[in-house]
């Protein structure tokens, strides 16, 4: 349904799936660039009537902020070339607590990225459609969400290639609008600058400079949605082509410059073209129509350009949701490897994508779109708070890093200054957004993020408790003898009773299951076959060497189990495979064994608790039962033996 499975052991697979800087700009940078569809508009409207001339300062401040944050994240890429972004920076440099806050904020942020992108795309499309169709906006947003989910389950590279023509169309059409919009009114820029300075001087003379400054800061922070998406590259380094650092920094440069020019240019054009709110239309739609009409082209030509530009804007907003589907599962995966989320979120499908993460992002985004009724104004507030929590923690972490590295990095002072400026900008935006918009949607995202943090703490505490139990189990079998050389054991023949045991890493869990078979069926099975699958998860899917190391580790695990069984006087052999989906690979091994040894019974262990509950069912992989169902369907026998967690 979702395409042909991909082989992670193929050395060419990483080259085929990885993205060069341009495609990374499309797949990840679209989030930042598309925010120019709603960020500048929210800023401009927040200025209020009579303060429009401050848009010149707003455009300069916006462009400056974009460039500074982009430069700081280029440094993050240098220090953490394997990806992880703000979550990894906070975890490694500030500790697990700040790391959890950063990670939870990012997960919610990426969900909101998807939600605001499809909602804003729907708004853009309905800007040129008849007003009586407006009630269908929410249906359009949900349809876009479903389509994008399907693309991402197919894979990152496929979804990015599909979106490339859309991205190029957006860049070209908006370059025309901004370029013509500025140069056609180029002589008016000096007048606009004079008006801006005059308004500040008048406010100072009247003693209302502080209220004017607060109005400007509110508008500046309301445009915080403009800066979101900048962190996507640092979070998703695993999808970039080698050399990853150079590709990542080049992508950041493309993203930062294009977003600064687009967002700042749109704000300036609002001012130069005297753009005002029009019912049923976005400010961008009004600007595009005014610019196109100024060309003196036929009516059909003007309308065609407006439609193409707005459709490309809507389509790019859909592409922006792509960053949520790439970055969100990447953060979930990193957090699951650290025990904050269920381990299944680090697993890859046969298409080598984190399907569980993609589905979770889509489901959560659907709930938020329906809950907010697709209100971009409310979503921008929620969106901005979370991403700037991560930005602030990331800047603090990098300040700590460069301070610690001052003796071995000559440019540490310059780097400290850069991140200090980044911290001041991000902390200011975060503080103003929370204080001014807390009761207008801000409290919602804070409650959601806090709830997610509490869930993560709950999951982590459970995994720690289980880890202690497993260590205790390992200690019980630490004295089990191994056969260092093959003893003279006789092959009992293909028709002899055979026990095939699925095992993971070498330890008390697998050893306990082996002895449980002996206890239940003493001296019945004359051959033991140990089967294992090296699971290619997101921690492993970073290059050919990682997969090769996994293959060696899995082979070594099987050898240990075979030596252990032979040390107990049992004839034992083993086999293994490597792949992203353990159930699929285990079934391949099972069919192979069944064909060669028809009198075989398969076994696996399953951790059981005194009381089964939602926690144990959610957090502990049901692989054993999944294999058992597959085997029963194919007529093979499998027994799942309990391993008590006490």
Structural write-up:
The chain is mainly α and 646 residues long. It folds into two domains: 17-459, Amino acid/polyamine transporter I; 498-644, HUPs (Rossmann fold), CATH 3.40.50. It is 67% helix and 6% strand. α6 (85-94) runs antiparallel to α7 (96-126). The longest helix has 39 residues, at 299-337.
Detail the topology: elements first, then pairings.
Layout lengths: L12 H5 L3 H7 L1 H6 L4 H9 L7 H25 L5 H10 L1 H31 L10 H18 L1 H28 L5 H17 L3 H14 L9 H4 L8 H29 L10 H11 L5 H39 L17 H18 L3 H29 L7 H26 L4 H35 L21 E5 L5 H13 L6 E9 L8 H24 L4 E8 L2 H15 L3 E9 L5 H6 L3 H11 L4 E7 L2
Parallel strand pairs: 1-2, 1-4, 2-3, 4-5
Helix pairs in contact: 2-9, 2-13, 4-11, 4-13, 5-13, 5-17, 5-18, 6-7, 6-17, 7-8, 7-15, 7-16, 7-17, 7-19, 8-15, 8-16, 9-13, 9-15, 11-18, 14-15, 15-16, 17-18, 17-19, 22-24
Main features:
646 residues, mainly alpha, 5 strands, Amino acid/polyamine transporter I, Rossmann fold, five-stranded parallel beta sheet
**Count of structural domains:** 2
- The CATH topology of the largest domain corresponds to Amino acid/polyamine transporter I
Q: State Rg.
A: 29 Å
Largest sheet: 5 strands, parallel
Class by helix and strand content?
mainly alpha
Low-confidence spans: pLDDT under 50, at least 5 residues? 6-19, 348-353
Summarize the structure.
The chain has 646 residues and is mainly alpha-helical. It is built from 24 helices and five strands.
């Amino acid at each position: 349904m979702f395409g042909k499975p991909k082989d992670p052991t193929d050395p060419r697979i990483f080259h085929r799936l990885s993205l060069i800087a341009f495609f990374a700009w499309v797949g990840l940078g679209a989030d930042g660039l598309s925010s120019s569809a709603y960020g500048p508009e929210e800023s401009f409207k927040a200025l209020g009537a009579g303060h429009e001339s401050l848009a010149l300062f707003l455009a300069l401040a916006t462009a400056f902020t974009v460039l500074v944050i982009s430069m700081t994240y280029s440094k993050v890429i240098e220090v953490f070339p394997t990806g992880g972004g703000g979550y990894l920076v906070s975890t490694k440099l500030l500790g697990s607590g700040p790391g959890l806050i950063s990670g939870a904020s990012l997960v919610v942020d990426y969900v909101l990225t998807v939600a605001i992108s499809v909602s804003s795309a729907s708004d853009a499309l309905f800007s040129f459609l008849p007003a009586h169709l407006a009630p269908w906006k929410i249906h359009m947003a949900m349809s876009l969400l479903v389509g994008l989910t399907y693309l991402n389950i197919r894979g990152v590279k496929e979804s990015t290639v599909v979106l490339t023509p859309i991205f190029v169309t957006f860049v070209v059409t908006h370059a025309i609008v901004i370029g013509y919009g500025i140069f056609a009114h180029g002589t008016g820029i000096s007048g606009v600058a004079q008006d801006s300075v005059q308004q500040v001087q008048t406010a100072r003379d009247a003693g209302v400079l502080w209220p004017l400054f607060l109005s400007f800061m509110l508008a500046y922070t309301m445009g915080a949605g403009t800066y979101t998406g900048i962190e996507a590259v640092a979070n998703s380094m695993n999808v970039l082509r080698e050399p990853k650092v150079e590709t990542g920094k080049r992508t950041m440069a493309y993203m930062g410059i294009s977003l600064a020019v687009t967002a700042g240019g749109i704000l300036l054009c609002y001012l130069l073209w005297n753009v005002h709110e029009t019912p049923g239309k976005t400010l961008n739609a009004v600007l595009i129509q005014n610019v196109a009409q100024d060309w003196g082209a036929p009516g059909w030509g003007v309308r065609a350009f407006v439609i193409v530009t707005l459709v490309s804007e809507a389509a790019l907003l859909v592409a922006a949701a792509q960053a949520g589907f790439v970055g969100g599962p990447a953060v979930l995966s990193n957090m699951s490897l650290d025990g904050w989320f269920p381990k299944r979120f680090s697993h890859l499908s046969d298409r080598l994508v984190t399907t569980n993460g993609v589905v979770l992002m889509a489901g959560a985004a659907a709930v938020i779109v329906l809950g907010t009724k697709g209100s971009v104004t409310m979503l921008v507030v929620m969106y901005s708070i979370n991403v700037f929590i991560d930005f602030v923690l990331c800047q603090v972490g990098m300040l700590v890093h460069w301070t610690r590295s001052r003796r071995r990095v000559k440019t540490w002072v310059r780097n400290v200054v850069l991140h200090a400026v980044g911290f001041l900008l991000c902390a200011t935006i975060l503080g103003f957004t929370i204080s001014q918009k807390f009761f207008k949607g801000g409290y919602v995202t804070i409650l959601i993020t806090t709830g997610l943090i509490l869930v993560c703490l709950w999951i982590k505490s459970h995994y720690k408790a289980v880890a202690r139990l497993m260590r205790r189990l390992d200690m019980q079998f630490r004295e089990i003898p191994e056969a260092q050389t093959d003893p003279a054991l006789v092959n009992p023949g293909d028709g002899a009773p055979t026990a095939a045991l699925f095992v993971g890493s070498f330890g008390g869990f697998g050893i306990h299951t082996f002895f449980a078979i002996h206890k239940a069926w003493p001296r019945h099975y004359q051959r033991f076959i140990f089967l294992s699958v090296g699971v290619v998860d997101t921690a492993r899917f970073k290059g050919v060497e990682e997969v090769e190391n996994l293959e060696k580790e899995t082979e070594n695990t099987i050898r240990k189990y075979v030596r252990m069984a032979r040390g107990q006087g049992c004839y034992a052999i083993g086999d293994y495979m490597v792949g992203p989906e353990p159930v699929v690979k285990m079934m391949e091994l099972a069919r192979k064994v069944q064909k060669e040894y028809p009198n075989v019974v398969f076994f696996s262990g399953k951790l059981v608790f005194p009381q089964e509950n939602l926690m144990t069912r959610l957090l502990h992989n049901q692989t054993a039962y999944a294999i058992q169902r597959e085997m029963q369907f194919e007529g093979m026998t499998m027994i799942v033996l309990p391993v008590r967690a006490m």
